[in-house]
Design brief:
With about 525 residues, the protein is of the alpha/beta class. Among the domains are: about 20-110 and about 380-455, TIM Barrel (Alpha-Beta Barrel); about 120-175, Oligo-1,6-glucosidase, Domain 2 (Oligo-1,6-glucosidase, domain 2, Alpha-Beta Complex), CATH 3.90.400.10; about 470-530, Golgi alpha-mannosidase II (Immunoglobulin-like, Sandwich). Helices cover about 25% and strands about 15% of the residues. It contains 15 helices and 20 strands. It has helices at about 10, 40-45, 50-55, 90-100, 120-130, 190-205, 250-265, 280-285, 300, 305-320, 340-345, 345-365, 390-395, 440-445, 450-465; strands at about 20-25, 60, 65, 80-85, 105-110, 140, 165, 175, 210-215, 270-275, 295, 330, 365-370, 470-475, 480-485, 490-495, 500-505, 510, 520, 525-530. This is Alpha-glucosidase. Pfam families: Alpha-amylase. It comes from Lentzea waywayandensis.
């Protein structure tokens, strides 16, 4: 079992370290390639730990690196207790954890409990065993509708497009809320629960500090699998709907209680759930004292660059956790959404607004999740059709381009691709030639760069007493603007999304997202004052 002596003194000293931590999401395929095959890997991450320590993050979140046929780039897991050879092996994982702890960086990893790969040994056994077997009961198999069973059991759609059911040769259908290569597990089956507990303990015993639970509002399915209401917009995880029977069923909380019970036996570890639930009370249920430590909050991702929308997102986020004693979490980008530089308008305008929102996010009380490359100001990339690999592209009949644009490998150094990411000329997704000014090398010594802004802001957040307060007080502000204060700490953050400069709140400027205009706050700019 994990021991506190396994960690450095700085890491071992506080069991609730995660309450105000800054996490850095590493999309493993795209961070750093150590062996020249064009795909990022675990030793590549280890080679860049010095950069992450310099940036000032407290913990990593690694996307799946488990054995997988890669139909969904690792979220189709064939063996949750082994490393896929494309990323390394268990020894490489152990080296990464040990070295990260030496850099005083904790390591959290993705957990994918809703489904497995169709090449998982269980699913292969289910196909061979046939209808009514114990092997098939581990998954959600059903008879079809219609006189000959040729119609799916219900009208559910896949998040990636098309039906959520696939028929097997013996006539039954299996459920897959995502790709057909990702059959959903039956969480009413005791072996499914026992296997997850085995997986949790396997990685906790290897020293991981926590888990990010993929689709944490999934897993539990409603009794009878009723039809869903088909809306004009394509329903899915990112379009939360209180009437969608596929997600946020009450039975999911029993699963999270089981996870929490296991983790309570490993002091200092934590679990955060990916919870696409907008209702504040429903969201809060996931972070009750006997469930998850944190709930991944997407309200800032969904808010446009508008002061009223951002303030509403902040207030709802704080309100959702107010009665639970759990800190809020904040993020602007991840591996499933358009990068925020592009969402805010792209180009110079998008970068200016992204800098402003970075200061807003980092001024907030609670937990921060950064997505690799956002500290470099990376935009989404318009990739050519031939390069697209996200299953959404094929499942939608080439109408939805998918998420590849936010997953392009990181540019580290040099003036042309692969920008130090790999020794391979062709990386798994192509990098734009014009990224030479966005490399970490180009930005490191430039005090005006996005990277320098992140480093300075994170240093202030960690060391400045103005960030001590956990509650916010709002100031009166002109239309299109807001200002709040960290109650108890005293830091003031002001944002201007209007089209004109406005007077600054009282205080001394600690950091600004862009050039100031005397005692005026320019448009598309944020500032910290003390």
């Amino acid at each position: 079992m994990r021991r506190s002596s396994d960690l450095t003194p700085e890491i071992a000293e506080e069991s609730a370290w995660w309450r105000d931590a800054v996490f850095y999401q590493v999309y493993v395929r795209s961070f750093a390639d150590s062996n020249g095959d064009g795909v990022g890997d675990l030793d590549g991450i280890r080679s860049r730990l010095g950069y992450l320590e310099l940036l000032g993050v407290d913990a990593l979140w690694l996307t799946p690196f488990y054995r997988s046929p890669m139909a969904d780039h690792g979220y189709d897991v064939a063996d949750p207790r082994d490393v896929d050879p494309i990323f390394g092996d268990l020894a490489a994982f152990d080296r990464l954890v040990a070295d990260a702890h030496e850099h005083n960086i904790r390591v959290t990893i993705d957990l994918v409990p809703n489904h497995t790969s169709d090449l998982h040994v269980w699913f292969q056994e289910a196909l061979q065993a046939g209808p009514g077997s114990m092997e098939r009961a581990r998954y959600v198999f059903r008879e079809g509708r219609g006189f000959d069973g040729s119609q799916p059991p219900n009208n559910w759609t896949s998040v990636f497009g098309g039906p959520a059911w696939t028929r097997v040769p013996d006539g039954q259908w299996f459920l897959h809320l995502f790709a057909p290569e990702q059959p959903d597990l039956n969480w009413d089956h005791p072996e499914v629960r026992a296997d997850l507990e085995h997986t949790l303990r396997f990685w906790l015993d290897r020293g991981v500090d926590g888990f990010r639970i993929d689709v944490a509002h999934g897993m539990a399915k409603p009794e009878g699998l009723p039809d869903m209401e088909i809306r004009a917009q394509a329903p899915g995880v990112l379009s939360d709907d209180a009437h969608d029977p596929r997600f946020d069923n009450d039975g999911v909380h029993e699963i999270h209680r089981m996870i929490r019970k296991v983790m309570d036996g490993y002091p200092g570890t934590m679990a955060v759930g990916e919870i696409w639930v907008k209702d504040d009370e429903r969201f809060a249920a996931y972070v009750r004292p006997d469930e998850l430590h944190l709930g991944f909050n997407f309200r800032l991702v969904e808010a446009g660059f508008d002061a009223d929308a951002v303030r509403t997102a902040i207030e709802h986020s704080l309100g959702a956790v107010a009665l639970t004693g759990t800190p809020a979490t904040w993020t602007l980008s991840n591996h499933d959404v358009v990068r925020h530089v592009t969402r805010y308008g792209g180009g110079a305008l998008g970068e200016q607004r992204a800098r402003a929102m970075t200061l807003v996010e980092l001024a907030l009380p609670g937990v921060i999740y950064l997505y690799n490359g956002e500290e470099l100001g990376l935009p989404n990339v318009e990739l050519p059709d031939w390069a697209l690999q996200d299953p959404t592209w094929e499942r939608s009949g080439h109408t939805e381009r998918g998420r590849d644009g936010c997953r392009v490998p990181i540019p580290w150094e040099g003036t042309s691709p692969p920008f130090g990411f790999s020794t391979a000329v062709n990386t798994w997704l192509p990098q734009p030639n014009e990224w030479d000014h966005l490399t970490a090398e180009a930005q490191l010594e430039d005090p005006g760069s996005m990277l320098s802004l992140y480093r300075e802001a994170l240093e202030h957040r960690k060391s400045n007493a103005g960030f001590a307060g956990e509650e916010l007080e709002w100031y009166g502000a002109p239309a299109g603007c807001f200002a709040f204060r960290r109650k108890g700490g005293g830091l003031i953050c002001a944002l201007n999304t209007s089209g004109a400069s406005v007077p600054l709140p009282p205080g001394q400027v600690l950091l600004s997202s862009g050039p100031m205009d005397g005692d005026q706050l320019p448009p598309d700019t944020a500032v910290w004052l003390v």
